[in-house]
Amino acid sequence: MVLEPGQSEGNAQNNHQGSDQWLFVVAGEGIARINGKPYLLKTGSLFLIEKGDIHEIRNNGNTLLRTLNIYVPPAYRKDGTPLPSGRSTGGSL
């Protein structure tokens, strides 16, 4: 995921019912709000956002915020559309 300065992803209702999300910060800085609690994001940070956790990621820095996101099990199809909770892609991402 790449967020411009001031940009955010997610909101007060954003969650993944069927997948845990691992978020690794490749570059930049920001704030992750998970279940209402803020966490500092900086290069090298690794977070587990468990299935069902409400979360928002915000770039509050001056450069791009770049993250690597891994969903277990997969949460999205290759085209970006969400998968139904707990569904596999059948190996075709």
Task: Give a written overview of the molecule.
- There is one protein chain.
- The chain is an all-beta fold and 93 residues long.
- The protein has a single domain (2-72), classed as Jelly Rolls (Sandwich).
- The protein has strands at 2-3, 8-10, 20-27, 29-34, 37-42, 46-49, 55-58, 65-72.
- A 4-stranded antiparallel beta sheet has the order 1-8-3-6, with no helix packed on it. It has a 4-stranded antiparallel beta sheet with strand order 2-7-4-5, with no helix packed on it.
- The radius of gyration is 13 Å and the shape is globular.
- 17% of the residues are buried.
- The mean pLDDT is 86.
Structural class given helices, strands, pairing? mainly beta
| Order of strands, widest sheet | 1-8-3-6
* Low-pLDDT residue intervals, each spanning 5 or more residues: none
What's the architecture, going by CATH?
Sandwich
What integer is the average pLDDT? 86
Q: Categorize the overall geometry.
A: globular
Structural domain count: 1
Share of helical residues: under 10%
CATH superfamily: Jelly Rolls
State which percent range the strand residues make up: 35-45%
- Supply the CATH class: Mainly Beta
Distance between the termini: 17 Å
Q: How many β-strands, per DSSP?
A: 8
User: If you consult CATH, what is the topology?
Assistant: Jelly Rolls
